[in-house]
Amino acid sequence: MPSIAKPLVPLQPLQRNDLGLTVRDYEGAPSTLCGGCGHDSVTAALIDALFKLGIPPHKIAKLSGIGCSSKTPAYFVRGAHGFNSVHGRMATIATGANAANRELTYVGISGDGDSLSIGLGHLAHAIRRNINMLYVIENNGVYGLTKGQFSASADLNSKSKKGEPNLLPPIDPVVMALSLGATFVARAFSGDKDRLIPILQAGLSHQGFALIDVISPCIQFNDHEGSTKSYLFTRQHEVTATDFVPPREEIVAAVPDEGAITVTMHDGTAMRFRAVPEGYDPSDRQAVARFVEDHRARGEVVTGLLYANPDVADLHELNKTPSAALASVTYDRLCPGSDALAKLQQSFR
Amino acid sequence: MTTLDTSKDLAGQQVRVNDFAVKLANVNGTGSASANGLLMRAIFRMGIPVSGKNLFPSNIQGLPTWYEIRVNGSGWTARALDYDLMVAMNAQTYAADVAEVRSGGYVLYDSTWPLDAALSRDDVTFLGVPLTQLCVEAFERPKERLLLKNICYAGVLVALLDIDLDLVATLLDETFAKNERLRESNQRALRMGYDYAREHLACPLPFRLSAMDATRDSILIDGNTATALGCLYAGATVAAWYPITPSTSVMDNFTSLCRTYRRQAVHRPDGEVDYRNDYLILQAEDELAALGMVLGANWNGARAFTATSGPGISLMNELLGFGYYTEIPAVLIDVQRTGPSTGMPTRTQQGDILACAYASHGDTKHLLLFPANPAECFDFAVRAFDLAERFQTPVIVLTDLDIGMNDWVVPTLTWDDAYLPDRGRVLTSADLDLMTEFHRFADEDADFVTPRTFPGEDSRGAYFVRGSGHDKYGGYTEIPDKYQEVVDRLALKHQAAADHMPGPVVERRHGAKVGVVTVGSCDLAVREAAELLDTAGRPVDVMRIRSFPFQAEVLEFLDAHDTCFVVEQNRDAQLRSLLVLETGVVQSKLQSVLVYGGFPLSAKHVVDSITRQLGG
User: What distance lies between CA A25 and its chain's CA centroid?
Assistant: First the structure.
């Protein structure tokens, strides 16, 4: 766990990834969040996912807004550049950063206040632009840092710690993202690391905007009876739409091909998911939205990789920018020079 | 102001050559803008200093709009308030327009309809041309009849003012090079107006043009085009913006320039031709997003900018403070319009000076540049990027609607091919090899700037950008001394930038005891006013401020004069306030000349106010 200080010399030799790095190289500063916070589990899963994908730490850019969740980029990959921006604006910073350098892996960490209230507009437009990034909403239905106000994802009639019912309907980022044309939509539960890690890996591999809504309970303000974002409620009401088939274990476990969905990512890697309900099709946007809505109406939380379309052009493909970072284009290629200026000005006569 | 070549014509009238003002009253959306621009361009091509001020409404079609052309052989082309000729083409404003003509002046009107006797003036000559009737007879389509009426009155003015007819015809040919039908009908309308005037009116009028050679090394350009060119030449690759009058044409121009100069054809293996764009322009969802994108791109090592106006600056406040505190470069172009709130979007003002100087909560100060004309827009846009990167902070270029959207005659822009962008202090992997440890806000130089690193370069250069309290190592802090150490350095860095920024332009006159301080687009009117005051026996020294923070010369100028008039276009004397706050000058010696109704400044405003305040 990221919140725990580790011994400098490990008891057993640590596994190394393709770069020869260990999971320690993907850790960050010790967490300052409350013990048992769901966000720390997400951080731990992210560390694992980045380690397993073997992304060089300095090629990772981690960004966030304001809130408990937005503190967490400090707690993973200390060798990555981090950007803790202002409340709700992380998507805009990530958009500009991505515009300047398409070669980095962008990890945006946000919360339900940051993404569904103050930053809702920016999230919507980042989805429309299909910015190539992983965008994680650590969703706990509550404002933690300001001590317990309902957020825009709190369910109707769910109760606050003080017992007050929530009078407003929730914004479901999954349904919203589907309607906005998102190219990768998933939901996971921070309490289920085994399924969270592969979904994060799939999101990181997706060329385009990968939205992962992670139900991440707030043990201080929203983990009580009557809360619909508690550990207990999520465990009791979780319905899995798809389940990841890990590629390495695939051979060992000999998972039959039958019933497995293969989603080929842009870089050619295949992500295999088992459709739990028979015939679930993560490429059918309308059907996915219907599935999620139907289950929500029954008080159930659908998790898994819900929708993916890897074939949509991202921001750079749409704008036909160079394959290397715009920021690396040398100045001689950018400045038209004095002769061109003189020639242009003939039309200003 | 020097009066040129004054003599009498055959009828014994006093003749004024290359020194007059024409105001054209039109209805917007009826095609008058192209006719008015045509006349102004023709005068420019005749080698005569000229200005064209478009006083237009925030509307697409149907409301009153005016265009003022001032011709002045000596180059005094600030807005004139005395109109020698009114081209009264708008029935809605006819009465007010006729009232504005100077005594002894002329009114050109459409005599298709009879003149309202009640609106006549004895001291003004009315020149009637049946423009509507001529166009109805000559053209068939309703739209042509309406649009070509403008070219027809342009033809009348060519005759009345002695504009070179062949030159105007050439300009029309250039404009409609690709459309023979329009070329023909426009030429016909031009001749029609010209011939009618020659036949029925006493041409030319006593004020008229005579070709000069004063614009040979000049161009006709608006500030927003020049700004966009500056951003192109500075090497900006990312731009993010939200449409807002009067700054929209900055990005429109940047876009079309990029399409011309930054797009390379790429031959694909399948034989198809594709493009590679060395730029990315993001039309953001709002101004907050625009600045967020600019900061993200600059953090990542691209030169990125946004263009906006006052309401956008208001929205960008939070991220401006963020950029200042986290020391991320950013270039903002603020084409000022009248505030507060929505204000008058198509009218000019210098009302954002204080809002920009201290934008955002907490102790923040920004670097400001104040261009006075399109030539400086080009120059300062380039310098803004260098300053932003050298001092790792947002830089705001404050132009205004008058500079940004009107065509100005300025010296031909030049470019030094030896120029290289000043990226400021950026560490590479090789630099990091030589260091034991990198800390983002440590190791300041003489200008209090600390080195930064770009993401993607090296893990050893990784740091955590945070708008929360941080110490010089970049770590989170709530400890008073460690917090203050960083913000104190930021204040010193801000002041240190002054000597790297364009200093004041000072113009001294023998015997002057009074100083006049001004900024931005007031420049021409103030310098003309200084000439007029000198002629009237009241010499003044003039200082035009070009940047903030202020250089030492600014206080020296203020100290050297018993009284200084600060001329600016806002209600609250914002430049004066900034001078008082930042230089420690004795407040009482600064008096104000404030013109803020939304139209560009005239020398007359300045002369009248200063004369009145000095008691005379």
Answer: 21
In B20-141, alpha helices (H): 32-45, 94-100, 131-138
Burial label for B29, CB within 10 Å (0-12, 13-18, 19+), is middle
pLDDT surpassing 80 at residue B483: yes
Q: What is the DSSP string of B472-508?
A: TTS-B---HHHHHHHHHHHHHHHHHGGGGS---EEE-
Alpha carbons B535 and B516: distance in angstroms, whole number = 16
Given a contact cutoff of 8 angstroms between Cβ atoms, the answer to whether B296 and A93 are in contact is yes
Q: CA A243 to CA A222: how far, in whole Å?
A: 27
What span, in angstroms and rounded, lies between the C-alpha atoms of A296 and A153?
A: 13
Nearest to B306 by CA among A121, B424, B547, B297: B297
Distance between CA atoms of B36 and A136, rounded to whole angstroms? 56
CB-CB neighbors (< 8 A) of A104 in chain B: 300, 455-456
Tell me: pLDDT of B616 over 70: no
- What pLDDT, on a 0 to 100 scale, did the predictor assign at position B522? 98
Q: What ranges make up the beta strands (E) of B168-270? A: 207-208, 218-222, 238-241, 263-267
* Interior angle at CA B42, CA B523 and CA B5, nearest 5: 70
List, as one string, the DSSP characters of B546-610. -EESPPHHHHHHHHT-SEEEEEESSTT-HHHHHHHHHH---GGGEEEEE--SSSPPBHHHHHHHH
Ramachandran angles phi, psi of B48, nearest 5°: -110, 130
Greatest alpha-carbon span in chain B: 89
3-state SS, one letter per residue, for B284-305? CCCHHHHHHHHHHHHHCCCCEE
Query: What is the interface size between A and B, counted as CB pairs within 8 Å?
Result: 212
pLDDT of residue B268: 87
> What's the pLDDT tens digit per position in A180-202?
999 999 999 998 888 899 999 99
Is the pLDDT score of B576 beyond 90?
yes
Q: Where does residue A210 rank: exposed (0-12), middle (13-18), buried (19+ CB within 10 A)?
A: buried
The amino acid at residue B26 is: N
Average pLDDT of the residues in B260-282 = 94
Q: Is B415 on the interface with A (CB under 8 A)?
A: yes
Strand A105-111 versus strand A60-64 pairing type? parallel
β-pair partners for B68: B23, B53
CB B166, CB B42: distance < 8 Å: no
Asked if A325 lies within 8 A of B45 by C-beta distance, the reply is: no
Q: Sign of torsion, CA A282 A244 A264 A313? A: positive
Confidence of residue B3 (pLDDT cuts 50, 70, 90): very low
Q: Return the closest-CA partner of residue B59 out of B404, B346, B347, B405.
A: B346
Mean pLDDT of the residues in chain B: 96
- Residues of chain A short of pLDDT 70, as ranges, are 1-5, 7-8, 244-261, 263, 265-275
Over residues A82-110, the pLDDT tens digits come to 999 999 999 999 999 999 999 999 999 99
pLDDT (tens digit per residue) in B429-474 = 999 999 999 999 999 999 999 999 999 999 999 999 999 999 999 9
Q: How close are the terminal C-alpha atoms of chain B, in Å?
A: 20
Residue in B240, B420, B462 closest to A331 by CB = B420
pLDDT digits over B287-303, tens only? 999 999 999 999 999 99
- CB–CB of B276 and A320 under 8 A? yes
- CA dist A263 and A242 (Å) reads 12
Chain B residues with beta carbon closer than 8 angstroms to that of A319: 277, 280
**Packed helices B131-138 and B142-161: angle between N→C axes, nearest 10 degrees:** 130
pTM of the full structure: 0.96
DSSP per position, B391-430: HTSEEEEEEEHHHHHSEEEEEPP---TT------SEE-HH
The three-state secondary structure class of B10 is coil
Distance from the B28 Cα atom to the nearest Cα atom in chain A, whole angstroms: 24
